[in-house]
């Protein structure tokens, strides 16, 4: 019944979760939005995975719909760093996922999909579906703050790691959140279509070249930010190994945090992109924010946040 729905958002205080809560609270068919979030602690990490607990709770409490937020990292790149160029939800891509984050997302996806059709305590049926986010940008995106600090430390020069022919999708956080709102609603209205399905998140962010998107976002906030040059793979690989050696030598006295590792570097330089309209076909998704609006909102936030970022802490390095 419209106006009687109660939504629970787990991780609702996070970067994407906060925007989902904001948009849900504006829908007149929802009676209440509840938020659950916590900081992982050692004493609770020993209990199974969070996704398994959510599925069990749905079955025990007869909650009939579950929408899971996953990531393109659940698909790949694999350990062989095989590229995926403009695939879609039906594209076959095999091999062990490279990053630990992606491995846990893949495990969670399996749990959610296998739970679709599970029996609830009241005799009903659980319906589940999955949204896969990619690189999400927008207000409060921590990686943009870090990149801006790096650029400021290098006199406004923004260098990049991926080769110029590498493709990656980017999506504005408001559009990722809007897709969640629509998918959750239509999972209720058209369960026979959405249940058991996986959808990639997308919008009209124009370039698949991540370094160009990042430059446009940062330069919109600060025109002094200039696009620098490509950092060769071998140079960054050597820096990672040198950092590991220094860390091992200094470990009794100081343990600097690793700034990058080889699996992450391999992922950055591997093309992994998709092209789809499945969400539009299945539940009428259209981006709530245009690229121009997304860029403006992000730039305004970054300008406002710049004053609290403090002076650059990194020394300029010669490439």
Helix content: 40-55%
Proper CATH architecture: 3-Layer(aba) Sandwich
Strand content: 15-25%
Number of strand elements: 11
Q: And the CATH topology? A: Rossmann fold
Write the element-wise H/E pattern from the N-terminal end onward: EHEHHEEHEEHEEHHEHEHHEHH
Cα Rg:
21 Å
Could you state the CATH homologous superfamily?
NAD(P)-binding Rossmann-like Domain
Helix run count: 12
Distance between the termini: 62 Å
Please give the domain count.
1
CATH class: Alpha Beta
Major β-sheet, in short?
A: 3 strands, parallel
Structure summarized in a few sentences:
With 319 residues, the chain is of the alpha/beta class. The protein is built from 12 helices and 11 strands.
Give an overview of the whole structure.
There is one protein chain. The chain has 319 residues and is α/β, with parallel strands linked by helices. It has one domain: NAD(P)-binding Rossmann-like Domain (Rossmann fold, 3-Layer(aba) Sandwich), CATH 3.40.50. The protein has 12 helices and 11 strands. The strands form 5 sheets. It has a 3-stranded parallel β-sheet with strand order 3-5-9, sandwiched between helices. Strands 1-2 form a two-stranded parallel sheet. A two-stranded parallel ribbon has the order 4-11. The longest helix is centred in the last third of the chain and has 18 residues, at 233-250. It is globular. The termini are far apart. Mean pLDDT is 90; it is low at 311-319.
Which characteristics define this entry?
single chain; 319 residues; alpha/beta; three-stranded parallel beta sheet; two-stranded parallel sheet; 11 strands; globular; disordered C terminus
């Amino acid at each position: 019944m419209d106006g009687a729905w109660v939504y629970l958002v787990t991780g609702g205080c996070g970067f994407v979760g906060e925007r989902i809560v904001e948009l849900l609270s504006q829908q007149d068919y929802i009676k209440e939005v509840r938020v659950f979030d916590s900081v992982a602690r050692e004493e609770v990490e020993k209990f199974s995975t969070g996704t398994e607990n959510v599925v069990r709770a749905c079955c025990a409490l007869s909650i009939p719909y579950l929408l899971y937020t996953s990531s393109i990292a659940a698909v790949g790149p694999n350990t062989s760093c095989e590229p995926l160029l403009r695939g879609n939800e039906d594209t076959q891509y095999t091999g062990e996922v490279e990053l630990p984050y992606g491995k846990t997302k893949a495990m969670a996806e399996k749990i959610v999909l296998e739970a679709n059709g599970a029996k609830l305590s009241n005799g009903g049926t659980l319906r589940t579906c999955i949204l896969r986010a990619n690189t999400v940008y927008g207000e409060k995106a921590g990686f943009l703050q870090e990149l801006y600090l790096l650029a400021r430390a290098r006199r406004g020069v923004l260098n990049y790691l991926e080769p110029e022919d590498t493709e990656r999708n980017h999506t504005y956080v408001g559009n990722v959140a809007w897709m969640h709102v629509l998918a959750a609603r239509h999972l209720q209205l058209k369960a026979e279509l959405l249940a058991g399905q996986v959808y990639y998140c997308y919008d009209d962010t124009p370039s698949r070249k991540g370094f160009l998107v990042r430059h446009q976002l940062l330069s919109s906030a600060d025109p002094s930010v200039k696009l620098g040059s490509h950092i060769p793979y071998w140079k960054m690989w050597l820096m990672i190994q040198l950092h590991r050696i220094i860390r091992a030598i200094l470990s009794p006295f100081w343990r600097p945090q690793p700034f990058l590792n080889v699996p992450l570097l391999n992922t950055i330089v591997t093309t992994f992109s998709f092209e789809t309209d499945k969400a539009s076909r299945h539940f009428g998704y259209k981006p709530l924010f245009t690229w121009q609006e997304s860029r403006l909102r992000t730039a305004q936030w970054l300008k406002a946040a710049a004053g609290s970022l403090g002076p650059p802490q990194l020394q300029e390095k010669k490439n």
